Amino acid sequence: MGCASSKRIDVYRPPPSSFAVFNVNAIEEPWLKMGDEHHQQDEKPTHVPLPILDKLKAIEDAPGTWDEVSKALEDIKPTFNSPPPPASAITKRTNSTPPAQDSEAPNVKAPGKSFSFHTLEELEAKVSSKPTELKETEPMGTELKKFQSNKTEHAESRVGAMSNSLKNNIFIVRDRLEREKEGKSSTFVKRDLLSEFEEKCPPGGADSLVLYTTSLGGVRSTFENCNRIRTILETHRVVFDERDISLHGEFLNELKELVGEGASVPRLFVKGKYIGGVEEVVSLNETGRLGRILSWTRVERGVGRLGCEGCGGARFVPCLDCGGSCKVLVGDKKERCPQCNENGLVHCPMCI
């Protein structure tokens, strides 16, 4: 083995990858190689004429004084700024026949038909011909009207054909003949929705709805039935004349004459026809017949007396002469007030 001092010591030599051994000059840089390849490529063709290109190359290759460069540029100027040909030559060329195609270039196609002008005479002829063409053509409005008229005529013809086909239908014709044999009219008769109801007209109720009710709650069922019919009519938003028998005794006498003795409220009358009490009205409303009757009779729609600011729909207000006491002082005696009813009420002056 021996100690470390007894070993032979060699001279230090750096590895091949060290910077001391690495030759920087031997590297071929890629951008320099690309530049050389780019210069070695063929030059792109140019549209500059060869004599001018040669002169430009000569100027670039052999730079000289300013006088020499200016002289070279003066030689190039006539080629760029050549004078235009005279107008007479252009007119002669346009008026003359086109030259025949050269036999050396058989593949060259003839120019297409052009609508451009070459002389002032051709321009004036084209401008003068345009207004005449516009006059000959019809405007867009007339064409649109024609199209619409044709469309309406076609639609009318289709409707006429459909009506004729319905008239000539076998079943319709057979039904019409059977009706004629039985003596019935074949024309359509509008049905009267009030024809099945009894004719009983309250005073002043030939063209309106009249409802007899009571505002007294002594009999609970009667009071609730009156409110129920009132709510139904308000839901249909029709104007009705509510006659409260508890406020005015004359209304009770009217109801007895129409229905008979022992008649209870509520009772409804529509344009001189007696509809019935609460059961009949509720049944008609549930089946939808009441709405159809009100629409067919064309009764007045709205709030009516319910929107009156004087009575609030009660139709009566206290008497202004007696104050609702039914007594007035005449001299030294008290007498019955002739203006109010038995309850000391008079008709509202705002809604009557």
UniProtKB/TrEMBL annotation:
Where does the Glutaredoxin domain lie? 210-275
Chain segments carrying region Disordered: 77-112
Q: Where is the composition biased (Polar residues)?
A: 91-100
Instruction: Name the chain's protein.
Output: Glutaredoxin domain-containing cysteine-rich 1
Q: Which GO terms describe its biological process?
A: actin filament bundle assembly; chloroplast relocation
One annotated GO molecular function: actin filament binding
Q: Got a GO cellular component term for this one?
A: actin filament
What SUPFAM superfamilies has UniProt attached to this entry? Thioredoxin-like
Out of the domains of life, which is the source? Eukaryota
Extract the Gene3D superfamilies matched here: Glutaredoxin
